[in-house]
Amino acid sequence: MQKKRAFFKEAVKNIKTSGTIVPSSKYLIKKMLKTVDFSNTKIVVEYGSGNGIITKEILKKLDKNGKLICFEINNEFYNHLLKINDSRLIVVNESSENINLVINKLNIIEVDCIISSLPLTNIPDQISINILKQSYLQLKKNGVFLQYQYSLTYFKKLKEIYKNVDLEFEIRNLPPAFIYICKKI
Ligand SMILES: C[S@@+](CC[C@H](N)C(=O)[O-])C[C@H]1O[C@@H](n2cnc3c(N)ncnc32)[C@H](O)[C@@H]1O
């Protein structure tokens, strides 16, 4: 599963929910995570962890007392993520739509940062909007919501929710990707 071929096979089989056929590039991951102040970040949520390529990089940077809660609906990817041996990691086989339920169950008050690989444009609009609104509610003040996408379709919708949205672009990814950096002010 670590290999790109295994990701490709599973992603193609579920192209509607995976939204891609290759995992994120190291350049995209580096650019995304550079925007997070890990010295001030303890509780991180990741949406759509896939084969864990971003998950492992988050864990490298996360505080030793931190927590990373990963949402993944694909059973193959979920089972693969369970093999990552790190006591700070919690993997749930749930849709990101249920962030409020999962966070409450874990007795977490608020989240510092959400890092999303969800293919928002493949998900029904109402569900995507619901996920974005729920995410906003779970974030602490000054918390950050990060999302990469292959188009700017969601820029306006994110701006309506977060007001403060910055944009980065990474060409060294297949396909090249925009990164939305949304701050809860
Ligand atoms: C574009 S892939 C990203 C994989 C990996 N994070 C990366 O960047 O290479 C999107 C992932 O989101 C997952 N996914 C799609 N809809 C989801 C949802 N509602 N909740 C949680 N995960 C979801 C898919 O199963 C897939 O693994």
Notes on the protein architecture:
With 185 residues, this protein is of the alpha/beta class. It is 37% helix and 24% strand. Strands 3-2-1-4-5-7-6 form a seven-stranded mixed β-sheet. The relative contact order is 0.16. S-adenosylmethionine (SAM) is lined by residues 17-20, 23-24, 47-50, 53-54, 71-74, 77, 95-96, 117-119. S-adenosylmethionine is lined by residues 17-20, 23-24, 47-50, 53-54, 71-74, 77, 95-96, 117-119.
Helices and strands, with pairings:
Blueprint: H1 4-13, H2 15-18, H3 26-34, E1 43-47, H4 53-61, E2 67-71, H5 75-81, E3 89-92, H6 99-105, E4 111-116, H7 125-138, E5 139-149, H8 155-162, E6 164-170, E7 177-183
Helix pairs in contact: 7-8
Bound molecules: S-adenosylmethionine.
Q: Keyphrases for this structure?
A:
185 residues; alpha/beta; Rossmann fold; 7-stranded mixed β-sheet; globular; binds S-adenosylmethionine
Second CATH tier, the architecture: 3-Layer(aba) Sandwich
Task: List low-pLDDT spans.
Answer: none
Strand order of the largest sheet: 3-2-1-4-5-7-6
Q: β content, as a range?
A: 15-25%
Largest beta-sheet details: 7 strands, mixed
Rounded radius of gyration (Å): 15 Å
The helix/strand order is: HHHEHEHEHEHEHEE
CATH level 3 topology: Rossmann fold
Number of domains as seen in the coordinates = 1
Supply the number of helical segments: 8
- How far is it from the N-terminal to the C-terminal residue, by CA? 39 Å
* Dominant shape: globular
Helix content: 25-40%
Number of strands: 7
CATH class: Alpha Beta
